[in-house]
Amino acid sequence: MLLLSVVFTLFGTQASIAQKKLNWHANFGVGMTDMRNFNTTFNDLQYGIREDDASIEYKVNSKPDYLISAGMGVSGSFRREGILGWDAGLNIRTGGFRVTANALESEGELSDFFREMLPDFGKTESFRYWALHVPFSLNYRPFEIIGFTFGGDLYYQLSSSPTDADFPHGRLGRHMGFSPLNTPKYQHPFQLGGHIGIYAPIGEKLRLDVQFVTDLSPRLTVDRTISEFKFREMGLMLNVQYKLGW
User: What's the pLDDT tens digit per position in 223-238?
Assistant: First the structure.
């Protein structure tokens, strides 16, 4: 209900200042996302366990996963010629990332206590979510065949957090390997994001968008005691809008 209130408030506010009638549309998007940051990745997460004469070194890698988004929206223009406009929507979105832990070097045999802390090496685990997604965009179309779009995104995740379900740090923590030096925390359930891209109208009904999408605030934080790694969902998406004849 909160998300619906936000959407209808946005729609009402923009409708009052737009000089053209509102246009309703359906949209469908596909893409790929990964959990990373602008200058850091999961490849920077390297771990080591040492016990007497036994030791092991391993690292954690993330891999992209698919993104799907579908829903409805409304759009309008601030000027009659349609150079500057806006659109907002309400979508169901699913996305995520995959994690693999790989052993680097090992020596000797660790005790059962320490072996229980280790992840399943070589096994790739997918961490996906379902969310209600509320995007709002400003559109600038200086040319007839192409325009530019940017805006913000609000997510409300319907899926549970991957770091809260199981002791000690959820399913994600277990797959990364349990250690006092490794404390992952996933932002849940609200998340803020942004997008920027280009779009092209195709006839009177269709519009194609290519967008770069990213979280504005970190979605995943890994506390390494002496340092803290912050990761965002980032990716590319191809989105199709179909104008409805209402």
Answer: 876 778 999 999 999 9
